[in-house]
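Try it yourself: sequence plus S-adenosylmethionine, in.
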Amino acid sequence: MSDLKDKLSSIMNSNQERLAFWSQFVTQFDCKKVAEVGIRYGNFSARLLTDCKSIETYYMIDPWRHIDNGYNDLANVSDDEFQKIYDEAVAKVEFAKHKVQILRGTTSEVIDQIPDESLDFIYIDGDHTLEGITIDMIKWYPKVKPGGFIGGDDFSPSIFPHTFKSEPVLVFPWVVYFAKAMNEPLFGLSGQFVMQKTVDEEYSFTDLTGGEYEDISIRSKVVRGLWWYLVKAYIKPLYLRVKNLMKAT
Ligand SMILES: C[S@@+](CC[C@H](N)C(=O)[O-])C[C@H]1O[C@@H](n2cnc3c(N)ncnc32)[C@H](O)[C@@H]1O
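Structure, out:
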């Protein structure tokens, strides 16, 4: 476990940027069968397929359609817009089409097309609501090989990391609870998580950020989110008004 911790810290220290981090991760752990849930424009897929020579198969999972079940994320645009986004994503990975398998559908719709214990790595970046992350973690976990990894985005200590208007983001701490339930080691990196599916390791949660994930309670997450909203909606505009008034006098 400390070996994994050292490797992750070293990748993180040399790659602050998200795509660079995952691209080195996939290369270093020699991941051959990789899946990504939530593709949008395909930037992440194209980067990994360009950088990581280890990849033999890359599953791209996304419905590329408007989801009408309360998933009010900003990424949930109209069907027409999604069609353009889909075309762009397909064009972006054209250079690697012999490795790519596009599965157009939600996790629940396509999961049966992936054999159990076949993936070296899956990156979860689809529906970040409580419903979405619950379905994704529970359905994808059996698809990962023993020794393989589940990583993901929006592992945010705040309940509203992007906007107050969408559903709360609950990837953190839900994934911590999931790792505890499955007795697996979990690592929190800035905004990202890595969980290993092990044979005989025990649950642990290692915060590699130096404190962002100190408190795993929902209470702390709500308080951070409300602070963020107060600052954005009231404190910052008030500060700017006072500053302008002082300039004018
Ligand atoms: C944040 S974007 C993905 C960004 C991409 N991973 C990247 O790094 O460039 C989220 C995507 O998740 C897709 N999505 C939403 N619900 C989903 C679900 N249940 N299963 C799979 N994908 C989903 C949306 O259509 C959207 O394109």
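One thing you can check immediately is this: The chain has a mean pLDDT of 92.
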